[in-house]
């Protein structure tokens, strides 16, 4: 099996050494081909070497990870950001479907991120462009990056009618386009979309409340704009009724 070539960028040598050791132990399929301690050094390194994945610290002494990516002509490698707890940046990561690891790096999270590299399709530039937009101080989070098995789609959140759980996948249903099967759980999207008027009405269903057409009380079923019927769980019934009354 071909190894994944990696470059580590962090201004703390100890952090790079720890990550390198963790990769050797938990992800031997990753080969570290270079290290850098700052933006300028990393930019020079990336011109000489072509990694499959860049492990990138956000805050460094001579700038940040975004400064580095902005000076590159093209992003043709996967990115896994390494960050201290930053709720705002983490929210932007989720909208753009970009992987990140919190310091100190948990080995299980590291392995999970590496495994995702094998199935995530190429389109890092589009994901990063969306990520930068979401990071703006007054950004309107109206788009979402969705990873299918072979592509990344940037969609308008308002076009989503409902999301349906399929084990470890989520099926997205839209107003005017074919459904998409995405490689994340419904819970992850519930966390992102709850601020956009989406409501978890059932263990397997997350609906856009703006697309609710009717509620059939006798059957505990919601009718949506596309005429699909979505079941409401008994424990969610009271909440759903209150939600509908508030619409």
Q: How would you describe the overall organization of this protein?
A:
The protein has 247 residues and is an alpha/beta fold. The protein folds into two domains: 4-135, Response regulator (Rossmann fold), CATH 3.40.50.2300; 155-246, OB fold (Dihydrolipoamide Acetyltransferase, E2P). It is built from eight helices and 17 strands. Strands 2-1-3-6-7 form a five-stranded parallel beta sheet, with helices on both faces. It has a five-stranded antiparallel beta sheet with strand order 12-11-10-14-13, covered by helices on one side. A hairpin with a 4-residue loop joins strand 16 and strand 17. Helix 2 packs across helix 3 (65-71) and helix 4 crosses helix 6. The longest helix has 14 residues, at 13-26. 28% of the residues are buried. The model has no long low-confidence stretch (mean pLDDT 86).
Secondary structure elements and pairings:
Layout: E1 4-9, H1 13-26, E2 30-36, H2 39-48, E3 53-57, E4 59-60, E5 63-64, H3 65-71, E6 78-83, H4 87-95, E7 99-102, H5 107-119, H6 124-135, E8 143-147, E9 152-156, E10 160-166, E11 169-174, E12 180-182, H7 186-193, E13 198-202, E14 205-208, E15 212-216, E16 221-224, E17 229-231, H8 237-246
Parallel strand pairs: 1-2, 1-3, 3-6, 6-7
Antiparallel strand pairs: 4-5, 8-9, 10-11, 10-14, 11-12, 13-14, 15-16, 16-17
Keyphrases for this structure?
247 residues; alpha/beta; Rossmann fold; OB fold (Dihydrolipoamide Acetyltransferase, E2P); 2 domains; 5-stranded parallel β-sheet; 5-stranded antiparallel β-sheet; 8 helices; 34% helix; elongated
């Amino acid at each position: 099996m071909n190894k994944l070539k990696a470059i580590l960028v962090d201004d703390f040598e100890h952090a790079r050494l720890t990550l390198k050791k963790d990769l050797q132990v938990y992800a031997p399929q990753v080969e570290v081909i270079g290290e850098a301690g700052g933006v300028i050094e990393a930019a020079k390194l990336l011109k000489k070497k072509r990694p499959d994945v860049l492990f990138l610290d956000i805050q460094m002494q001579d700038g940040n990870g975004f400064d580095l990516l902005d000076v590159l002509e093209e992003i043709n490698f996967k990115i896994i950001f390494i960050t201290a707890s930053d709720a705002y940046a983490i929210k932007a990561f989720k909208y753009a479907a970009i992987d990140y690891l919190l310091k100190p790096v948990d080995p299980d999270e590291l392995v999970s991120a590496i495994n995702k590299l094998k199935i995530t399709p190429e389109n890092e530039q589009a994901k990063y462009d969306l990520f930068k937009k979401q990071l703006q101080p007054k950004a309107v989070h109206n788009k979402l990056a969705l990873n299918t098995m072979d592509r990344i789609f940037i969609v308008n959140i308002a076009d989503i009618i409902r999301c349906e759980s399929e084990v470890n996948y989520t099926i997205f249903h839209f107003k005017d386009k074919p459904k998409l099967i995405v490689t994340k759980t419904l819970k992850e999207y519930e966390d992102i979309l709850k601020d956009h008027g989406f409501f978890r009405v059932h263990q397997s269903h997350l609906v856009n409340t703006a697309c609710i057409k009717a509620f059939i009380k006798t059957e505990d079923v919601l009718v949506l704009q596309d005429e699909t019927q979505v079941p409401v769980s008994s424990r969610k019934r009271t909440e759903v009724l209150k939600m509908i009354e508030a619409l």
